[in-house]
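Sanity check

After download, print the first record. It should look like this:
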Amino acid sequence: FAYLESSFFLVRLLQGFSSFTLAPDAQPADTKPPASWKSFPLKAKEKIHRWNQFDGVCEGQ
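Expected structure tokens:
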């Protein structure tokens, strides 16, 4: 139930914004994707480094 409520709250919060942008200069260096990802077409587009794919925990922006 708590997960559902927090998801609902987050969606409603984000609906209040028309757009947002990332600030790479404010991002800590250890949260940026590894340089080795640049050779992969899809990974090269990533701007954050996700830790876990199941619960969406990530560092950075």
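If your output differs, re-run the checksum step. Summary of this record's structure: The chain has one helix and two strands.
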